[in-house]
Each structure stands twice: as structure tokens, then as C-alpha cells.
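Subject line: Sequence and fold of a protein, written as C-alpha cells
Enclosed: The protein record, placed directly beneath this head.
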Amino acid sequence: MESHPAWMGPARTPEAHECSIALTLARRAREAPEALFAAFSDGSEWTNALAYEIAGETAAALSVHGVSAGDRVVNWLPNSAAHLRVLLGSALLGAVPVPVNPALRGRPLEDALRLARASLVVTHAALAERLSEIEPAVVGATAVLGAAGEAAETLRAPADGLAAPAFTQPWDLGVILYTSGTTGGVKAVRVPNGQLWSVGKVHFGFLKASDRVMLTTPLCHVGPLAALVGAIMAGASVIVLEAFKTSSFWDDVRRFGATAVPGMGPSLLHFLSKAPVTADDRNHGLRLVNVVAADEAARGFARRFGVSFFPSFGMTELSVPIVGDLDSRVEGSCGRARDGMEVRIVDENDIEVPAGEVGEIVVRAQHPWTVNDGYEANPEATVAAWRNGWFHTGDAARRDADGNFFFADRIKDIIRRRGENISSIEVEREVKAFPPVEDAAAVAVPSEHGDQEVLVVVSPLAGSEVVPEQLIAFLRDRVPHFMVPRYVRVMREMPRTPSNKIRKADLRREGVAADVWDREKAGISVRADRLGSVA
């Protein structure tokens, strides 16, 4: 069995100075003032010294707006230099940043702001008009960047009178992050400084000071935020892009000299791997990507583009409790429990199941303040998640005898058909291997036989057509008979959350709609292979 890198242990609660972004920023500015701190889509760059100067000016401006240490600052901005300076300025002041997805509007935005209870909402002029739909008492004070005329706001002020960087403890609230809410209302996760340090340490362990970490997903999510913190800890620099774009990904890698990219989920790997092979596939400096599992998709990507990968399992509420080795050879595994984290697989009664059986992932930390401090203003959800002293992830997985974990599915997404438990993720992986398919979602729908049937919803690639009969023929030789979908639905645009996750709850609710193709009605039967008797 491979071992984790030495940096993984021993685990501990961090010292106050270690988990302070403000103090780390000050140290970087002092020790390497001219080293690159960040680069942005518009071509602008910050050195360590400039980053500290800008953070100080932003902290001073926040103070002018009435923000004090411990207050909350909503950072409702797209990935940009402005987003980063509000984050760093809040940290320097000792305020709590609350990054909000710029895609939010209407009721989800109102719910997020109500939970934030912020002293100030910092946003962009292009987003500010959405606030007019929300009760003013919920919004509170605002600072609108990018406005014209008298309304212009730079959020800059002289930092001369600003106190020294705020000294925070591991148990102090470091940031509030929102879960994406694919099945219900939004929840606000209380992330202490100790957790930020712990999750950043995972990325820090794989990084060098010479690395340039390219962030392509919204900084309101834990993945890119953790990578940002890890880069700050490692003395590395970050590249903040507005969004992930398949068409320009490799051009951006070359332009900015990116060496590491976090959060390469299955969809991103899929989109990039489907691009035509070119002579420039290895003409870049990227060396490392973070993936969800050491599967063939990850290895194929690594082989084609000449990069290394490490798998991991994490969520907003946790500090990446499961991490794999660099270029792990354990097929399909997301890794093993890292030092400082206890991970079990349990049944519906919280009893640990034997190795090889699928159950729910539950986690607890061995050291205080290195995982979440509950949900903001939602004690019911906090108690439910922390049942019996373990945090319940809602994710299904299995563990082998060597302690490797294998993610199966979200518990609510497992499909029960003819006595078999079917992972929607496994179905989706094979469906997305069908050349005309760009994206896919597999969900359970009721069966007239008393259990469930498999419905796959697919989005075709631009200029392509998905023919259900051809898709079924493609799948028959790739998956067990019971996994072959009965129903196929083609949708150009699938319902998505603000974080771009497919809203499977919506697809389940719509069920067998009028535009759904039915394999059985088409007269296509898929049965188990008949095997002869064996003496």
C-alpha cells in the first residue's frame, strides 16, 4: 500500500499565526516583496508587496464603511482582482468574508443575504440592480464597484491609520460558505480559521513556491478557496480567471505559465478530453491537477497531456478528509483517510459496515476546529448532520481492506432496480463516453414493477444528435444489463444550480415526461447473458 507524503502528518490544531491569512500575507510581503502573488484575466499582476498594500487600502475602506473585526462582509463579485482584494482586505481587518455566487438572483440571493447578516455588501454595478428586488433591511449597506459618476466607489482608502494585521485564533470564524442546494434551501457553513488552514494544507503539501495555481471556478466555492489558501501558505502564486472555458483552457495555461489546476471534476476532464488531439497537447508547463478519483478518465487525461494528478474527496463542510497519492494506481479510489481525520462507512443506523459494502461516509476530526462549526442559523440541520458525534456527508462509498475509499454516489441518487443498487455516477460516466454526448444525468423514476427504472437525460454536443437506439446499443457492451437505461431524454439545456451542478431533483420530479423515449415501448429488450452450467 502506498503511503501519504510526509507533510500529511502529524496532524494537529494549528497555531494562531499559521492560520491567519493576514499574518501570512504580511510575512510574504516582508520576505519576498517582488515575488508574484497573483495574475488576472486582464493581464494585471500583483507582487507580494502590492497585494499587501492593496489589502491594506481595502481594509481601511471597509473600516470607513463601518466594518470592524468580527463583522461580516458579503463579497458578491465575480472572479477578479476586486474579489481577491475584498477577501484579503476583510482578512486584514479581522472581518469575516462571505463570498456569494454572482449567478444568484431572486429568492436564492435573498436567502443568502438573510443568512449572512452582513455589515456591508460589496458588489458590482452589473449585479446591483438585482438587489432592488430584495427587502432593503435584508440587503443593508452596500458598496457598488464599477458604478459611474457620483455613485463611483473604489473601496480604497489610505491605510496609514490601519492597525496591524488582525490576530485571529483557530476557533474564530474565518469565512461563511454556502452549499449549492441542489435539493433544498441554501445552507451557510461556518468555516473556522482552523478548517481553512487544514484544507489549505492539503493543497500546500503538493505545491512549491515556484508553482502558479490557476483558479477557473468561482471563488465562492470551497475548492478554489482552499487552493488559494494553500498557495498563500506555500508561497506560490495564483492565476484568477473569470470562468472555466474549454476552448481557451490550454491557451490560458500557456499564457500564464500555470503549473497546477485544482478542482478538475469529471465534467471538466470530460470536456477537455473530448477536444481533438493536437500536436500542442503537451506543449505547456502544467504539472499537476486535482481530480475526484484515480480512474481511467484521470489517467487518460494524465497520459495524453503529460501531467500528474492526485485524487481527493471533500465538501464545503469538511477539510478534504480523504486524499490519494500522486498518480495513484488504486483504480477508482479517491484516496485514504488523511492524518487527523477519522472516516467510517456506516449503515442507516450508524453501524460500521464490513469492508467492501456500500454505506454512508461519516467523518470526525481528531483535532478541534479543523472541520465546520455547524450551519449558520440552522440548528436543526447542524444536529442532523452531526448525529452521534460524526458528520454525515450524505455520500455513499465503500472501503477496501487496505483503507482505500471508493465513492459510489450521493445517497439520494442511488437507483434501486430489480434488486440491484445502481450508481448514477457509473451510468453517467458510460453515457458520457458516447461520442455525441456532452453531458448526462441519470436519475431514478418509478417502475410499474414496484421498484425503480433508470432515466438518463443527455445534452448533445453542438452540431451533434443523440439517437436513443444508438446510445442503448453503445451501452449494452459496456455496462451490466440492469444498468442499461430504460428511458432516454434529450435536452439541449439541463436545469442547473448557480454552481452549475445539474438539478437532479428537477429531473426526478419531471419524471417520464412527454419527450422521454422508452426502450421497452421501442421493443428493445436487454437481459442478462445466459451462462451454461459449470460442473
